[in-house]
Amino acid sequence: MGEQPEALPFLAEGVLRCYVVDENGRDITDCFVSRPGDAATGCGGLNAPSVVNIEAITDCQLMFVPLAQLLPLLDHPQMLRAYNCHLCRALYRHWEIKMLLYQCSAMERYQWFLDHYPGLEQVVSGKHVASFIGITPVTLSRLRHQLKKE
Fold first, then answer.
1. Structure pTM?
2. pLDDT above 90: percentage of residues in the chain
3. Is the dihedral of CA 132, 15, 44, 85 positive or negative?
4. Tens-place pLDDT, residues 4-23
5. Secondary structure class of 142 (helix, strand, coil)
6. Of the candidates 67, 59, 50, which has an alpha carbon nearest to the alpha carbon of residue 13?
7. 3 state SS for 81-140
8. Tens digits of per-residue pLDDT, 54-105?
9. Contact call for residues 18 and 31 (beta carbons, < 8 A)
């Protein structure tokens, strides 16, 4: 968090977690990067300092594209379109989770997580999943138990 990137990392394999630390020292999961090809950025702008911490949850392979080589390419319309598509997808994913937090029950949020991140609950700690969908680990445990009963 706060570091100026020198390269844009793309996930080849593995799982990353982006998080912030609140005023009480608790970390809150902002997002997971688990799809190969997704950029692992900590902000919207390429030259801006990261606004989140990024950690590897599993062993990861990343491909780094130096910003000094990438930024001049954004003068080309096709590259600019590709960058804008990436930003739009990222913005959509962030708004989707934000709306889930405001409008859906804990069970609906957990089911959304299971649908949108298949298999990730086997890799990521319950504490991080709970934080991501805005519930406590105890609530997550109850939801998992309830789903097993059904």
1. 0.87
2. 73
3. negative
4. 888 999 999 999 999 999 99
5. helix
6. 59
7. HHHHHHHHHHHHHHHHHHHHHHHCCHHHHHHHHHHHCCCHHHCCCHHHHHHHCCCCHHHH
8. 999 999 999 999 999 999 999 999 999 988 898 888 889 889 999 999 999 9
9. yes
d(CA 128, CA 86): 25
Locate tokens 């809150």: which residue? 28
Q: Given this model, what pLDDT does residue 23 score?
A: 93
3-state secondary structure of 74: helix
In angstroms, rounded to a whole number, what is the distance separating the alpha carbons of residues 92 and 97? 9
Are 100 and 133 a contacting pair, CB within 8 Å?
yes
Helix (H, G, I), strand (E, B) or coil at 4: coil
Question: Closest Cα partner for 65 from 96, 88, 86?
Answer: 86
**17 and 124 Cβ atoms separated by less than 8 Å:** yes
